[in-house]
Every structure is written in C-alpha cells, then in structure tokens.
TrEMBL record:
UniProt GO molecular function: sulfur carrier activity; sulfurtransferase activity
Taxonomic source organism: Oceanirhabdus seepicola
Signal peptide stretch: none
UniProt binding sites for Mo-bis(molybdopterin guanine dinucleotide): 240-245
Purpose of the protein: Required for formate dehydrogenase (FDH) activity. Acts as a sulfur carrier protein that transfers sulfur from IscS to the molybdenum cofactor prior to its insertion into FDH.
Keywords: Cytoplasm, Molybdenum cofactor biosynthesis
UniProt gene name: fdhD
Keyword flag Cytoplasm: yes
Name this protein carries in UniProt: Sulfur carrier protein FdhD
InterPro entries: Cytidine_deaminase-like, FdhD
Length: 257
C-alpha cells in the first residue's frame, strides 16, 4: 500500500487561489489479532506495521522480549495476526486509558501509581553539544515530513550518532515502531538517546521508561505530569531542543556542558 498519495486541492495565498496537486500521508486502520482473537485497532501510517505491533505489545506489557512471539503475519491489508507463546497476560476485555495522541492508542498500566515501570538506573553521561547535533541531524533526515508535513518522527541515537528511526501519523505509533525495530534487531536501549518531534505526554514518558531508555529529547514541550513521571522513574527529560538551546526538566545529573 502507498503511504503517500496525491490529491487535487485549492491553494490560497495572499488573496490568490490556484489549483494544485498536493501530497498527503495515508492513514489506515490496523486490526491486531492475538492468537486468532481480535485485540485492538490502531490508526497508523501503513508501513513498518510488524514493528509497530511488536512495539505496541511491548509497551502494553504483553511481551517483554521477541522470544515470546511465536509468529507475526500480515494476512491481508489492515490485519496482523500475532502468535504468542503465552497469552496469560492478554486481557481481551479490559477498561483502557485512551492516550492523548493520534489514533486509538492505549495503555494498560496504571499511570497514577506507575506499577509497571522500573526506575532507570543508568548513570551514563551525555554531552549537551552532541544531543543538539543529533537533533539537528534528525530534523533534516525526516523524509516523510518533508514530503507531506503530516507525520511525527522518533529516532534512537548511540555514541556514533543516529541508529534507527521511524515516522507515523501518531507520535505513539512512531515510538512503538522504534521499540519494535529494537526488539527485532536486538538493540540494547539502556544507554541510548530517544529523539522525538512530538509533545511528551505521560504515556510517551512511560513507553520510554518501559524500554529502559534513560534520555528523552523532544523538539516540543512536555506536560506537567510527564515531568513528574520523569523525576519518579529517573528519566532525563529535555524539551524544546532547537538550534543551540534546550529546556532540561529532569535528570540533569546525566548531562555535561
């Protein structure tokens, strides 16, 4: 399936209208089945769907490693079937807390008491100049955003720079795709940096902490509750990382100037 399509639109600028062809991002409903039973529908950009599903299941606490997945198969457009070796953690009828992002994201963890998230013990140091350099590289590498202006992006960085990245209409989906890629490629995230274009809400912070990522850097703003959560789980949280500036909300002990 194409992820970008062209449509005819009318453009208005400075009192003048013209008919042009514009590129827009495709959105689809993705039904997830676990052990042949319907689980949830996600609205997403239709690429890297297996990575999205794996990351979503990890974030939901349904898997903790790729070894728990017996198979994953896209049998038709908009449908992915996952076979889990043990589905005792899967609750098919459960009251969900809907996220504040695009689509129908959800989390099963109780975000108020934070029972399912461990404190990040990582004590690595990160240079602020390197973080800003990574963010500049990340912002210039977002091809889908350049083409359509309609996606969020996430990227994992190591000591050698950008490692893997993902884009999607939903900021939660982009992060889940990234987590799924890390699971498939056995990438250890405990000392990595997560870059994101999107707002950091509490659910994004929780996904980050569950993946054991110690440093989260956003081009945008965090919410007040996300800052509280970052301090509780010891995640270094940075917002408004643009040009040569940033706001540090928590975990300054990991940063060197």
């Amino acid at each position: 399936m194409d992820i970008v399509k062209e449509i005819d639109i009318t453009k208005y600028s400075n009192g003048i209208t013209e008919n042009i062809t514009d590129k827009i991002i495709v959105e689809e409903a993705l039904d997830i089945y676990i052990n042949n039973k319907y689980y949830v529908t996600l609205m997403c950009t239709p690429y890297e769907e297996k990575e999205l599903v794996l990351g979503f299941l990890f974030s939901e606490g349904l898997i903790s490693s790729i070894k728990e997945v017996e198979n994953i198969e896209k049998k038709s457009e908009g449908m992915i079937f996952v076979g889990l070796r043990d589905n005792k953690r899967v609750i098919f009828e459960n009251k969900r807390a809907l996220t504040s992002g695009c689509g129908r994201g959800s989390i099963h963890v109780n975000i108020l008491v934070n029972k399912n998230v461990d404190i990040i013990e990582n004590t690595c140091n990160y240079k602020i100049k390197d973080i800003l350099m990574y963010m500049k590289e990340f912002n210039t590498a977002s091809n889908l955003f350049k083409e359509t202006g309609g996606v969020h992006g996430c990227c994992i960085c190591g000591c050698d720079g950008l490692l893997i990245s993902s884009e999607d209409i939903g900021r939660h989906n982009a992060l889940d795709k990234l987590i799924g890629k890390s699971l498939l490629n056995n990438i250890d995230l405990h000392d990595k940096i997560l870059l994101t274009t999107g707002r950091v809400s509490s659910d994004i912070l929780i996904k980050t902490a569950k993946a054991k990522i110690p440093l989260l850097v956003s081009h945008s703003a965090p919410t007040e509750f996300a800052v509280k959560m970052a301090k509780i789980v010891n995640v270094t949280l940075i917002g408004f990382a643009r040009g040569n500036r940033m706001n540090i909300y928590s975990g300054e002990h990991r940063l060197t100037y």
